[in-house]
Every structure is written in C-alpha cells, then in structure tokens.
C-alpha cells in the first residue's frame, strides 16, 4: 500500500465517521426537545397510580403501552413548548443551549416533530390503552401548549400555578388506563401534584430570577417580594399535604402510604417553613438556598409515589 493510498483511506474513514457523529448529535437534539428529565418525573407518578388502581400489577403490556403513550404525549408538548419559547430560551443562561437556540434543530422541524409526537400519542393511547386515556393526554397537551405556554406564561405571575395543571394529568391517565374511569382517589392525587408544583418550581425561579427578568417572563419571584412568595409556598404546601392525607380515608391505600404521606409531608413542610424563616431574616443567595427546597420537592414526590406503588402489595 502506498502512502497516498493510506492517506486516502484515512481521509475516507474520517469522512465516513462524520455522518455517524452527525446522526448521533441530531438524535440527541431531538431527544432534548422532549425534555426527558421532566418526563422522568411524570412517569414516576403514572406507574404507581396504575399499581394502586389495579390493586397490584397491571399487565406488562398495559404498563408499556401507557408509558410509551405518555412519553410521546409529554415529549410532543415539550417540543411545542420549546418551539413557542425559543425567543425566551435564547435570552436565558439556563436554556441557551437548547436545540432550537443552538440551531441543532430548525423551528420548522421542531414544529413538525412536536405535532407528530402529539398526534401519534393520542392514536397510540386510544388504540392500545383506551380512549379515555387518549382524551386526557390530548387535554394535557392542550393545557401545556395553549393554556400555559401561549396564554399564561408571559402574562401572569400565577402562570405556573394554573399552567401546572398539565403536569397533574399523568395520574389521571395512569388511573384511567387501568379502570377506564377517574375516581376520587385519582382526583386527590391530581390535587397533590397541583399544589406541589408552586413550591417545587418557585425556588428554581428564585435562583434564575435574573434570567426570567431578562426574558420578560413574570414568574412570581421576579415580580413579587420574597416574603409573598414564601407565604404562598407555605399555603400550597399545606394544601398539598392535606390532599395527600385526604386520600387515606377513601380506603384504597394502606399503612405504607399513610406513613409516607405523614412523614414525607412533615419533612417537606419543614423545608418550606425553614426557607420562609430565612426569607424573613433577609437572607439571599446561597444562604437562602432555594435549590434545597427544589430538590427536596422532588424527593418528597418520589417517596410519596414509591410508597403508593408498594402499598397494594403490603398487608398486615
């Protein structure tokens, strides 16, 4: 083999490697559009709800069909959210590396991708699960894309409160996938997540308040005093704990869930009250530690729903 032939082969190998790297990076960009980390949290609430509704293990096929349909629905909604908010994302440090900002995906491609995922999710759930679940998924997509992203987010400081309704829908979808209906237990689980959303998200908005202010998004921590935000966080946390405890008398849960609801609720309530006391003292930045509450809220929800999943299998 001559030196020229060797060089040609090396060049061919390099050129041959570029499309592969390009495909991988493109796939990563499209996956990023679906916001997989947020979807993980949604799935954490769906599967335990299915276990509770079934009083044990639903069929594996039903679990997979519901999870895939739920991922497609959430992914479609998140993609359309990024499409509509690409101007905001470009102004915020936290979101400046998203695919539509960097140009990894074009706006037109993202719009088509989001609509396709949303449409496929409805058909998937309708044909493989049931049409009640499909209708709830469509409702969740419309709530997130239209009600929250297009109407509320840029207009009101209560955007995350009412816009958070979309994030509550997976428990209704999970319950209906098993039973074909929605019960009072499912409604209360819906309310747990509804009241959980503000004390979960506002600490994040507090940390990135300069970003939101630069983007012109009126998140409550941007337009209101820290004491008002802390007071509303306490109110929503109290209502969240009340909703979680109101499930117990309905009789569909046992002692595992009961202990988790009381214990995790008390712990998270302590974190929120401690945060409010730090606000009252005038602490800011790292001393205020808003992300402690943010991460604590994720732990709370995880503990509560893991207990919900275990509960049907544990009897005294």
UniProtKB/TrEMBL annotation:
Catalytic activity: heme b + (2E,6E)-farnesyl diphosphate + H2O = Fe(II)-heme o + diphosphate
Ranges for region Disordered: 1-20
Record pathway: Porphyrin-containing compound metabolism; heme O biosynthesis; heme O from protoheme: step 1/1
Subcellular location: Cell membrane
The EC number(s) this enzyme carries: 2.5.1.141
Pfam families associated with the record: UbiA
Enzyme kind, highest EC tier: transferase
Stretches that traverse the bilayer: 38-57, 63-84, 105-125, 131-152, 184-202, 229-248, 254-276, 288-310
One function term, GO molecular function aspect: protoheme IX farnesyltransferase activity
Single GO BP term: heme O biosynthetic process
InterPro entries recorded: Protohaem_IX_farnesylTrfase, UbiA_prenyltransferase, UbiA_prenylTrfase_CS, UbiA_sf
Bilayer topology annotation: Multi-pass membrane protein
Keyword annotations: Cell membrane, Heme biosynthesis, Membrane, Transferase, Transmembrane, Transmembrane helix
GO cellular component terms, semicolon-separated: plasma membrane
UniProt cross-references to HAMAP family, sorted A to Z: CyoE_CtaB
Note: Carbon 2 of the heme B porphyrin ring is defined according to the Fischer nomenclature.
Biological role: Converts heme B (protoheme IX) to heme O by substitution of the vinyl group on carbon 2 of heme B porphyrin ring with a hydroxyethyl farnesyl side group.
Family per record: Belongs to the UbiA prenyltransferase family. Protoheme IX farnesyltransferase subfamily.
UniProt xrefs under PANTHER family: 4-HYDROXYBENZOATE SOLANESYLTRANSFERASE, PROTOHEME IX FARNESYLTRANSFERASE, MITOCHONDRIAL
Protein name as it appears in the record: Protoheme IX farnesyltransferase
Organism (species): Brachybacterium aquaticum
């Amino acid at each position: 083999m001559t030196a020229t032939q060797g060089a040609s082969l090396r060049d061919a190998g390099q050129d041959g490697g570029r499309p592969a790297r390009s495909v991988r990076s493109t796939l990563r960009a499209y996956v990023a559009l679906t916001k997989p980390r947020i979807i993980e949290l949604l799935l954490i609430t769906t599967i335990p709800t299915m276990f509770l509704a079934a009083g044990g293990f639903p069929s594996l096929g039903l679990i997979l069909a519901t999870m895939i349909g739920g991922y497609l629905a959430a992914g479609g909604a998140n993609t359309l959210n990024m499409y509509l908010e690409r101007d905001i994302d470009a102004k915020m440090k936290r979101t400046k590396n998203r695919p539509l900002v960097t140009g990894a995906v074009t706006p037109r491609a993202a719009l088509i991708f989001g609509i396709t995922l949303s449409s496929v999710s409805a058909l998937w759930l309708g044909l493989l699960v049931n049409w009640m679940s499909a209708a709830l998924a469509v409702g969740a997509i419309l709530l997130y894309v239209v009600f929250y992203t297009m109407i509320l987010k840029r207009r009101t400081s209560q955007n995350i409160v009412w816009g958070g309704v979309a994030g509550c829908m997976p428990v209704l979808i999970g319950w209906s996938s098993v039973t074909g209906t929605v019960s009072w237990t499912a409604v209360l689980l819906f309310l747990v997540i509804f009241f959980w959303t503000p004390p979960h998200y506002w600490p994040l908005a507090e940390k990135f308040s300069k970003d939101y202010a630069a983007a012109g998004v009126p998140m409550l921590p941007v337009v209101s005093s820290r004491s008002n935000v802390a007071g509303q966080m306490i109110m929503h946390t109290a209502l969240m704990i009340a909703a979680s405890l109101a499930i117990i008398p309905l009789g569909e849960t046992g002692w595992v869930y009961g202990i988790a609801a009381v214990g995790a609720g008390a712990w998270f309530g302590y974190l929120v009250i401690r945060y409010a006391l730090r606000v009252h003292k005038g602490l800011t930045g790292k001393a205020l530690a808003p992300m402690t509450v943010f991460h604590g809220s994720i732990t709370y929800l995880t503990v509560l729903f893991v207990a919900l999943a275990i509960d049907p299998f544990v009897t005294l």
